[in-house]
Structure prediction request, 283 residues.
Amino acid sequence: MANTTYILDARSGLILEGGGMRGIFTCGVLDALMDRGVRFPYTVGVSAGACNGLSYMSRQRGRAKYSNIDLLEKYRYIGFKHLILKGNIMDFDLLFNKFPNEIIPYDYAAYAESDERFEMVTTSCRTGQACYYDEKRDPKRIIDIVKASSSLPFVSPISYVDGEPMLDGGIADSIPLLRARAEGFDNNLVVLTRNRGYRKSAGNVFVPPLFYCRYPRLREAIKRRNALYNEQISYVEEQEEAGLLTVIRPEHPIEVDRMERDTRKLLRLYDEGYALASALNII
Prediction:
């Protein structure tokens, strides 16, 4: 970390990148923050960052780790068998129904009573633009939003929020630093799930002709996704070097894939996130 001290104040924002199973790094960071009693006035999460951020908001320390490691090993909820059988590379019924309601219940009451703001990012299929939601009271709508934020293009079906078609928030805004600043939070801690210097492949993402024919703006957003991500990460690095924000990111080479199922690799990445967040001097 370039900055080893972070001053928490009323302008502080916590920004959680996605990245599929690489989000286990974020679980470690968030558990360390909870162990230290650190709360942010504003948090914004994308995709896996939204999922893990919900457990942070409800103060359920260890819940996200348990979901991503222990329950993955037990239920094997990621894989192409789910894509073939259910049209989704992840078992969404298990993840967004049985997990929060039965297996590892989500504390909706604690979340509703929290003073802090939490936004989850989705991408509108109609506009190709990012949408930001901060629902706290309606459990069904909370799940609709986080499910939409996590619905990966091509390998997950379109989700709906308030009847509007949505997909993964990372398509339109992978690292919502500008959103945090627009909301008045300009003292930000950014949690990334890739090593410093990482960039996506240059050039447009190929979108097969049969995908999303009804949503031309979504198709364009997906095509530009790599370029937008690279622009955002470059901006984050520039701001970090200028001392205008603090970043926690993996420092060891990433071994974890977006759809990783090796729980030993996941645990190592979790431990690294926990250690780095514990080492950050927060005052």
